[in-house]
Amino acid sequence: MAIVVQKFGGTSVANAQKIRQAAKRVIEVVKSGFGVVVVASARGKQTDQLIADAFELNPNPPKREMDQLLSTGEQQTVSLFAMALDAMGYDAISFTGGQIRMITDSDHMRARIKSIDAKRIHQQLDKKKIVIVAGFQGIDKDENITTLGRGGSDTTAVALAAALGAEECEIYTDVSGIYTADPRIFKNAVKMDEISYDEMLELASFGASVMHPRAVEFGKKYDVKIHVRSSSNKENGTIITHEVPQMEGVIVSGATIQRDLAKIGLLGVDNMPGNAAKIFAHLAKAKVVIDDIIQTEISPEKANLSFMISISDLAAAKEAVEQIKDEVHCDSIFVRDDIAEISVVGIGMRTHYGVAEKMFTALAEAKVNIDSITTSEIRISCAVDEDQAEKALKVVCAAFDLHKPAKYRRES
Ligand code: ADP
Ligand code: ASP
Ligand code: MG
User: Fold this and answer.
1) Cα–Cα distance between 210 and 212 in angstroms, integer?
2) Tens-digit pLDDT profile for residues 44-88
3) Ligand 1 close to Cβ of residue 328 (< 6 A)
4) Which residues surround ligand 3, an ion (CB under 5 A)?
5) Reported pTM
6) On the CB side of 107, how many CA atoms lie within 13 Å of its CA?
């Protein structure tokens, strides 16, 4: 039997009426002859509420206990979803991540999926049941509950679609697809019909919260067709798919804003082999995820080194660099916790020039100072003051005509 995976995000299951509405979308697909596996998120803002509850009791809650707590949000949704389907006359069964052997590593709160045993799901689909799986969670080899990081239900859905060989993975959310920028910030953003995995991965990794980055990686690796669409209308959304040659004609496909960043700089570190290795070994030991490393030689004897981290890792990162500071003869450490990053992404950048100039000019004309610049083959990112970030995003979107559909932005 052909299988479709349908994932419903928090707003799409926020209350009984929304769950019923989502259940109707599931039934439509069941009626057209597919086996359906539903992945559901916690209702509404429930994950935020659970986090607030934890911090009320403990400013530094143990990560294992956080996962134990946060996983309950999704567990509630899936049983309610199964009850809604039952009331509508359809046989459904809900599972937690552990019950379908969604095995992850033990890195609590940002665990990575290692394997899934699809047997139990196939058995239920064979019995003509609709299977509802709790997103965002798994278990490690010692049966501890783990979670995949904020937004991780997308990854549960795409990983399941890959494991089940599903025809398609539908991501139902509160916008109608992937837009050229977050439509809540840049109101004139336009919806894309399709986007390549590589572009979506850069957008997701640099702030487009509409997809969890790991979900896009799974999609690319296992060839899963991902359809991001609205749970409140029937419009076609955006297909995330493999690159085709004409995509290169669009130089900038989208722009993002990433907040909640911090930057740490180590000034005047001894310029000698092994120092960078020592610093990053300390940060790795503290489990800090690092982005945008910049090292510059400032004299034959000294170098400056800086990197970006998520603000949630700031305390651990500060402690780690303080421990190594003297060993590498660092003159001083500076920290910025008021920084955001604006990025433009497009596979057309591989074959066209002038993108950096256009971005920097737009920021200069808006009097936005650029703190640092990093690039990949298909992305340019500028770190800016957080309080100027929205303005920066809007001027960059305007500079690249991101209010126009792709066909009007195509160059030869
Ligand atoms: P869900 O709860 O359904 O997983 P999310 O809040 O995780 O939903 O993701 C949807 C949100 O992503 C949208 O409401 C939108 O504000 C935001 N977003 C950011 N960038 C984009 C983009 N380029 N296109 C569409 N939505 C985006
Ligand atoms: N409920 C989790 C979160 O709010 C996972 C998800 O929604 O994808 O981050
Ligand atoms: Mg999400």
Assistant:
1) 7
2) 999 999 999 999 999 999 999 999 999 999 999 999 999 999 999
3) no
4) 9, 151
5) 0.95
6) 14
SS3 at position 221: helix
SS3 at position 121 = helix
Q: Closest Cα partner for 20 from 70, 68, 71, 89?
A: 89
How much of the chain is helix, strand and coil, in % rounded to 5? 40, 30, 35
Q: Residue 42 CA: which ligand 2 atom is closest?
A: 1
Instruction: For residues 189 and 210, give the distance between their C-alpha atoms in angstroms, rounded to a whole number.
Output: 14
Query: Which ligand sits closest to the CA of 204?
Result: 1
Closest CA to 138 of 75, 95, 96, 82: 96
As a residue count, the chain comes to 412
- CB within 8 A of 249, min separation 6: which ones? 348, 410, 411, 412
Work out the burial of residue 151: count CB atoms within 10 Å of its CB; fewer than 13 is exposed, 13-18 middle, 19 or more buried: buried
Establish whether residue 209 lines the binding site of ligand 1, counting it when its CB lies within 6 angstroms of any ligand atom: yes
**How many Å separate Cα 96 from the centre of its chain?**
21
Quick one: which ligand is closest to 174's CA? 1
